[in-house]
Amino acid sequence: MFDPVGVPAETILDITWLLIGICGAIGVVMFCLIGFAIVRCRRPEGDDREPPQVYGSNPIELAWTVVPLMIVFVLFMVSARGIFELERTSPSEGATELTVTGHRWWWEFDYGDLGIVTAGELHVPIDEGGVADLYLTLKSADVAHSFWVPQLGPKMDVIPDRVNHLWLQANRPGTFVGQCAEYCGNQHANMLITVVVEPREDFEAWVRNQQQDAAADTTVAAGKRLFLRTACINCHTVRGTVANGTFAPDLTHLMSRSTIGSGAIANTPENLREWVWDPQNIKPGCDMPSMKLSRSEVDLVCAYLETLR
Ligand SMILES: [Cu+2]
């Protein structure tokens, strides 16, 4: 959050510095006064008289009521203005709109009209010298989560049976990472978000690829048959096949993602095999059981999964 790349995150950082500045200044004044009192008002050796007792002082009472009130008022106004600026209930012109669903313990991204559903990693277009606006509609499939990509904007709670909205912005291409920010169970820490802000041509190429059904690659027919015969298809979708489960990440373009398990591990051939062998070794407690395949069956299935580009 100390390296913002857009208006929402910059606004938050400005307010943060103001808060740190004011609270820091109060802290400095207080510690100086305490230090002064400790040094100057020490009881001298052999002096056991009581210091003068002062009861009631209107000026002092007024000062310590009015000054904090003024400080609180300023902080309140600044925060309220920030909240009004950042909270949006409708998308700005040209914003990329998508629906985010928090699941234990992964994120689903649905691009609506574009017909794209993916997991863990989302892509956003940016024009040369422009900004990328993102307008998210946030939902939860189970418990409360919170969507937070610090460089792009505020965090927003993701609450069951409630729809929240969030405006994010990036003013340059790049990969920005975020995280679920509301404790949601044992794999909460492995519920990461990757936002890829990329030039429009790259984004459009990504969209064209994501819109396609899974390629039918005959060299991996055995692996595909095994996948389709296994319970994988009750939880996962691979468009263009009979696999149409919606409980778990859509695997149609699994290999286009840089990680497995919403950021838990890098998407490499070895890691993919370890995941399919037993996801519980990688994300203990996650909602994908070990499918009890043999090592050679895992190899077959993974050879098929690797064609899902
Ligand atoms: Cu969560």
Written overview of the protein:
Helices cover 36% and strands 21% of the residues. By secondary structure, it is α+β, with helices and mostly antiparallel strands. It has three domains: 7-44 and 53-86, no CATH class; 96-198, Sandwich (Immunoglobulin-like), CATH 2.60.40.420; 218-305, Immunoglobulin-like, CATH 2.60.40.420. The strands form three sheets. It has a five-stranded mixed beta sheet. It has a five-stranded mixed beta sheet with strand order 4-10-9-6-7. Strands 11-12 form a two-stranded antiparallel sheet. The protein starts with 6 loop residues before the first helix and ends with a helix. The model has no long low-confidence stretch (mean pLDDT 94).
List the defining traits of the structure above.
21% strand, 309 residues, five-stranded mixed β-sheet, 3 domains, 36% helix, Immunoglobulin-like, alpha+beta, binds copper (II) ion
Q: Any guess at the CATH architecture of the largest domain? A: Sandwich
Low-pLDDT sequence parts: none
Number of strands: 12
What string gives the helices and strands in order? HHEEEEEEEEEEHHHEEHHH
- Coarse shape: elongated
CATH level 1 name of the largest domain: Mainly Beta
Mean pLDDT: 94
What is the share of helical residues? 25-40%
**Chemical compounds bound to the protein:** copper (II) ion
Main β sheet profile: 5 strands, mixed
CATH homologous superfamily descriptor of the largest domain: Cupredoxins -  blue copper proteins
Percent of residues in β-strands:
15-25%
Number of domains: 3
What's the structural blueprint in terms of helices and strands?
Layout: H1 7-40, H2 58-86, E1 96-103, E2 106-110, E3 117-119, E4 121-126, E5 132-140, E6 145-148, E7 156-158, E8 164-170, E9 174-180, E10 192-199, H3 200-211, H4 221-229, H5 232-235, E11 259-260, E12 265-266, H6 269-277, H7 279-282, H8 295-305
Parallel strand pairs: 1-5, 4-10
Antiparallel strand pairs: 1-2, 2-3, 5-8, 6-7, 6-9, 9-10, 11-12
Helix pairs in contact: 1-2, 4-8, 6-8
